[in-house]
Amino acid sequence: MTLCPLCTHQANFFIQDKKRAYYLCPHCGLVFAAPNSHVLPNIERQRYARAQEISKQKSLSQFIFPLLEHIAQQQPNQTLSGLNFGRVLDSNSLEQITQAGHILNQYDPFFAANQEVLNQQYDFVCCYRVFEHFRSPQKEWRLLSQLVRPNGWLAISTPLLNNLQQFEKWHYKTNPTHVSFYQQLTFEYMATNASFTLLFASKDFILMQKTSGSDIKRNLI
């Protein structure tokens, strides 16, 4: 019996390709790779290192800056504290955020593993192309839920799985470090079970707020 690593319900065998078997949870909609196919930590670290390339850094900053700008519009004249979880933003971008009067801490399991930043709450937490790497998404989701303070925002970038029939040909699953794949149903489940309101979920952008009643625009990005 294979249990879903997010909701712990029994999952069903989904498909088998040349390298891995995948399972589908009928309860939360998560699709995940068989645990025995997970790559070794040193290989994952090497692939994570590629995310520090200039092109990837540009994508990360283009994700964070519009998010910070729109949240700041909701709380004008306030210093915002945020956490960039799972990636490391370049020093120049961090300096721009500081000059704008805000604070952004960073946590990366390989390159910025400062546990102290995980012991406080933030106005916003952002996760750029991180969720697909979660081997134990229940554990990670519980942590992220605790890091966002009431009325705070959680912004996630991960490609949504919109068509199960096309999963077998989906290029995104070919990366061996991508082990968890989410449908909109999955994020609806996660939001409901952690006192979040799911404000937006489309393509590769998901936005949640820790309480209901936010008036932030749905077309934020």
Automatic annotation (TrEMBL):
It holds the Pfam family Methyltransf_23. Keywords: Methyltransferase, Transferase. Transmembrane segments: none annotated. Signal peptide: none annotated. Gene3D superfamilies: Vaccinia Virus protein VP39. One of its GO terms (biological process) is methylation. Coiled coil: none annotated. GO terms for molecular function: methyltransferase activity. It comes from the Bacteria. This is Class I SAM-dependent methyltransferase.
